[in-house]
Amino acid sequence: MLQISNAVAIQDWEIQLTAIRAQGAGGQNVNKVSSAIHLRFDIKHSTLPDFYKERLLKSQDGRITKDGVIIIKAQQYRTQEQNREDALNRLKEIILEAAKTNKVRRATKPTKGSQRRRLDKKNQRSNTKKLRAKPI
User: Fold this and answer.
1) What is the pTM of this model?
2) Which of 130, 123, 35 is nearest to 74 (CA)?
3) Could you read off the pLDDT of 34-91 as tens digits, one per residue?
4) d(CA 92, CA 10)
5) Regarding beta strands 2-3 and 9-10, do their DSSP bridges make them parallel or antiparallel, or are they unpaired?
């Protein structure tokens, strides 16, 4: 079971983990050992709350297919167990990232004092430039 938050957890039967051969250099063992992990998680058929499902399906993450399946390939580590942990952690991060709500931005106005100071500086600068001008 993958614990997302205090109230939300994903059961093991919802996550499909498959061991595959990792890419890249690996010496004599590379063709014999399936150490990489291919994780598939179907958002639509999961037991996640609707809020999480909606946010995940709306997100523009490239790891989420059009059918609503998250696909993660973990092959960073040499052992299958470490890659499994890495894949599950990355799934958790994707779900938590989708659940974040952005702060609402409220437009602000400059204060009267700041407006006055700005205009005073403009007048001061204008006067300085006038004094530099050649007399007529």
Assistant:
1) 0.69
2) 35
3) 788 888 988 888 888 888 888 888 888 888 888 888 899 988 888 888 999 999 999 8
4) 9
5) antiparallel
d(CA 73, CA 83): 9
Quickly count: other Cβ atoms within 10 Å of residue 78's Cβ.
12
C-alpha distances (whole Å) from 9 to each of 5, 37, 39, 82 are 7, 21, 17, 21
Compute the half-sphere exposure of residue 37: CA atoms within 13 Å on the CB side of its CA: 24
Would you state the structure tokens that stand for residue 41, as one six-digit string?
A: 């998680």
C-alpha span between 34 and 12 (Å, rounded): 21
Percent composition of the chain: helix, strand, coil (DSSP 3-state, to 5): 40, 20, 40
Rg (CA), the chain: 28
Residue with tokens 């079971």, as numbered in its chain: 1
Handedness of CA 16, 19, 20, 26 (dihedral sign): positive
DSSP state of 121: H
